[in-house]
Amino acid sequence: MGKKDPNEIVLEAKSFLVSETDSDGIIKFANDDFCRYAEYSLDELVGEPHNFVRHRDMPRAAFKDLWDTVKQGKTWEGFVKNASKSGKFYWVFATVYPFKSCDGSSGYISCRRKASEDEIEKYTKLYKTMKAQER
Ligand SMILES: Cc1cc2nc3c(=O)[nH]c(=O)nc-3n(C[C@H](O)[C@H](O)[C@H](O)COP(=O)(O)O)c2cc1C
């Protein structure tokens, strides 16, 4: 792999980033690891739509696939490049689950772990191609 981008924040292997949204994708909760990498406090995140951390390199089709999948009640898995508050970025492998609580509320939970260097390289290329096709 080539030289590391100085703007990349590399996750620690033990990191586990969790966030919860309502059924419209509005953030209701984020754990400490999510806040730390995103460089926002929980207060800054809660109430914001989840595209708050979207990175401009992410293709629209990836999120269309995510939403199409979870709205069918299925689990979505995929690689996501997120932007941090200071303009840096970090890659994750995300699993997004739909849930229904016993109190009747429903929403989505995303759990994210470190993506490997090979995975990051592969998805950087793939998303670049997908972005180029958007124009
Ligand atoms: C539980 C959950 C977690 C999400 N996590 C992220 C995320 O970490 N980064 C991101 O860019 N989009 C995430 N999304 C997708 C966003 O809701 C949104 O579709 C995406 O950022 C694209 O923004 P746009 O629809 O305004 O183009 C998540 C959605 C859900 C339901």
Rg computed from alpha carbons, rounded to a whole number of angstroms: 15 Å
Total discrete domains: 1
Label the CATH architecture.
2-Layer Sandwich
User: Main β-sheet: number of strands, strand sense, barrel status?
Assistant: 5 strands, antiparallel
Tell me the number of strands: 5
C-alpha end-to-end distance: 28 Å
Low-confidence stretches: none
The percentage of residues in β strands lies in: 25-35%
The CATH class is: Alpha Beta
Q: State the CATH topology.
A: Beta-Lactamase
Shape from CA axes? Answer: globular
Output the CATH homologous superfamily. Answer: PAS domain
Small-molecule binders: flavin mononucleotide
Share of helical residues: 25-40%
Total helical segments: 4
Q: Please, what is the average pLDDT?
A: 96
**Structural class, judged by helices and strands?**
alpha+beta
Notes on the structure:
It is built from 4 helices and 5 strands, in the order ββαααβββα. The chain is of the alpha+beta class. The protein has a single domain, classed as PAS domain (Beta-Lactamase), CATH 3.30.450.20. It has a 5-stranded antiparallel beta sheet. Bound molecules: flavin mononucleotide. Flavin mononucleotide binds next to β1, α3, β3 and β5.
